[in-house]
Amino acid sequence: MRARFWHERWQQNQIGFHQDETNPYLQTYWPKLQLAPHSTIFVPLCGKSIDMLWLRAQEYRVLGIELSPIAVKDFFTEQGLEPKISQQGSFELWEVDGLKILLGDFFQLTAADLVGCDAIYDRASLIALPPDMREQYVTHLQQIAAGKPSLLITLEYDQTITGGPPFSVSSAEVESYYAAQYQIERLAQIDISQTQHGIIAKGVKELHEAVYWLQPKA
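Above: the chain sequence. Below: its structure as C-alpha cells.
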C-alpha cells in the first residue's frame, strides 16, 4: 500500500474515512493534554479533516501533512479559505491564519519540519496503514517528533474477517509501538458496530474505537 493507492482513493472519491463533523473524542479528551494556547499541533496524514478547524478554533496552531493534492485543495476550497502556497524543501506549503498543511510524503519529513510542534493528534493515520507500514510510521514519527504527547484513536475488530483500510490495531500493538517512550492511558473503548454499516456488512460482529493518551516518559 503505497502512494499510488491513496492517490487513487482520492481520485475516485473513495474516502469513507473522512468525517463531516468534528471527532467527538477529540472534543472530549483533548483537554487532558493540558496544552497552552497557541501550542502547535501536528496532524499526520490529515486528509481534509475538519478536526484541524476545531483545533484552530481552540487557539492552537495546526500543522498537517498530506500526500494527496486533491485532499489539500478540497480542504481549503470547502472551507472557503484562500491559502498562501509556497515551497518548503521538498514540500508544497499551504497556509492560512495559523493553519498549515505540507503537501507531500510523510516519510520525507524531518525533525526540522516539526520544530516548534508541541503535540500530535492521530485519528486516522495509524489505522490507515498495513502492519509493515505501521511499524515504519511509528518509528519515523518518533524520530521526528520525539517526546511529544499524543491523542491516538484506533479501531479494533476481527481482521481475519475482512482487511483494511481502516485496519484493526489492538491495544497490545499500541503497547508494542509506544510503551518504550510513553506512558499509555486507554481513555475509552466505544462500541460503534451500530453505526458502521459498511464494515458490519462484511461479516464483522464487533467493532470498537479506542482512545489513548500517550504521555512522554520523564
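Helices lie at 3-11, 24-29, 51-57, 69-78, 131-144, 171-178, 197-200.
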